[in-house]
Amino acid sequence: MAAVRAVESGERAATDFFAAPAPPPRAARRAAPPVAPAAPHAAAPPEVPGEVHELLARAGAPAALAAPVVLALGPQAAEVLLEDPWQLLLVPGVRPEQADAFARALPGEERSPDSPARGRALAVWLLSRAARQGHTVLEVGMLAQQLAAFSVSEAEAAVYAAAEEGLLLAFAPEQAQTDEQAPADGTEAAEPAGDGAAAEPAGPVLVGLERWALAEESLAEGVQRLLTTFTPGTEGREEWEKAAASVSGPSARELIGAVAGAALVLHSGGESAKAEPAALASAAAALGLRVCVAAWSEEDRERLRVAATDGAGREDACTTVTVAGLLGGSEGPGRDEEGCFTVDLLIVTDAGLLGTETAAALVESLPEGARLVLSGDPQLLGSAGAGQVLGDLFAARICPQVVSRTPDPGPLGELVSSIGIGELPRVEAPDHEVVIVPVRDAGEAVHRSVQLVADSVPRAVGVPAEQTQVVTVGQEGGAGTKALNAALKQRLNPGTGAFDGFDAGDRVLHTPQPGRSVPATVLGADDAGLRLECFGQQVTVPRELLAETVRHGWAITAHQAAGRRWPAAVVVLPGDAGALLDRRWVYTAFGRGVRHVSVVQGLGPELDRIVAERPGAPRVTRLRSLLTAQRAEQQRAEQ
């Protein structure tokens, strides 16, 4: 599937595009999307021009919106908003009703709900909201339906207008096979019989923002480059076979054998299966390859650093980093003159958490001829960013896939594995590994959660409160993160909130970049801002950024907890949360505890139905189609 860019360039009207799309020539390889480096100090807030403050005050908008407005719209934000007040929707956190109120408060003739500018801005806002939910594109009919819900009378026309303005891109449907038509072994489906027989069209036109279109195309092209520039040859094959034979476990041996002959290998499994990429790293380093293992969290980085040692026990046999540190340049092997990582093999664990942009940055940073292993658990909640990279790569069937047969041990392993196949058993837990705590309402859920963290878990399991993480469904509600954190702070670290609502010793969650949250502890504050300790590093967050980047962290959401584990976890499921849950959420939340999980349960038998009947909605993306189209094109060229 190729992006149609004629509308953006002005060569064709949007109506022409939708009626008869014509794919353009393949784009040249793009540079990797930039990733901001990690820094000991958070970015300083922008300087806000006086006219921005004046405009917001005139419209009755909160003064705190000034810095985010300038960040989103630039120093000419006041001029932009006077010309088109609905551009306020580009500011994170602003909702349509707030932008409408802002527009009504400003002078001008085109301020009605039927304003074309409003329809265009809402189309972009809805696609941005979809991206936060994981989708890189939407069907054109779905976007029009969502626009109509916001009283856009000519919803489909608004989509066309946004395409004509270059605010979004549209993608032509192509001939494609469905999941049912695709052979299970990944081979190509047979051509339809008879002259002129047509393949089934992929479906309706898709629309999306350029940011995600470029990222998906860049990722697909980067994967294709890895596949076509890698030549395994026969040299060293015997050494790879010896390395595979020397490790324990059939899945680890299978993984090493697959990597010996392929540029890209996918590996799936639970927490215990992470020992297999570690064994691969050790074996490859012993063979003389430059190996880098990239973990999602700092905790996993340290565990892998210990596990991924060569036969002599040297910890420097390969480099272990976090994904953020590798891309930011604060960790890792460094880059060569062309900007590529100086590695022969990159192994990424928890790869299901990679958003499209992050994955594209990693792939585009690999040198030609390098190997890449993406390892993850497909059952977990997906990335915080748009895309479902690991799932799309598995579905495209373009490379070897190794499914681990290593089970997670004990009652917790049994519980989580059962959830993964749609069952919620009552497991035997002789050492209190799993405890179910029934509750009647949200207030009782908060009370029992605090009791578990402060008293019951330390006494019965031996895990102190600072090593226990509370996981709940969302921020709001009677048992959301806000209510739970208020109660937990009052019990575990009471104080006056002297530092903009925080006290020294508070447990917090720092979000230096969208989609990346890091647990931290408050050290104090000074004129520069709030001082935090994050895994041995001190970070100073300016006061102006606190509201957006720092929250109390005794209780967090399952999405924020993904990629991390704690000795004990308390999962809170209030009775009114059923509509927000699916099997992936339950699987992720129940898997956050290493030694113990308490489930504060207000759903009753509804939880069993959620696990059995609601596997989780798929994300709408283009990556799989791009990859399969590239494979088909290559196969035609080789014939």
From TrEMBL:
Domain ATP-dependent RecD2 DNA helicase-like helix-hairpin-helix intervals: 52-137
Keyword Transcription: no
InterPro entries (UniProt xref): P-loop_NTPase (IPR027417), RecD2-like_HHH (IPR029493)
Ranges where the record places region Disordered: 1-47, 176-200
UniProt-recorded Gene Ontology molecular function terms: helicase activity
UniProt keywords, alphabetically: ATP-binding, Helicase, Hydrolase, Nucleotide-binding
Annotated CDD domains: SF1_C_RecD (cd18809)
Domain of life from the UniProt record: Bacteria
Biased segments, Low complexity type: 30-45, 183-200
Protein name stated in the entry: ATP-dependent RecD-like DNA helicase
Originating organism: Streptomyces tardus
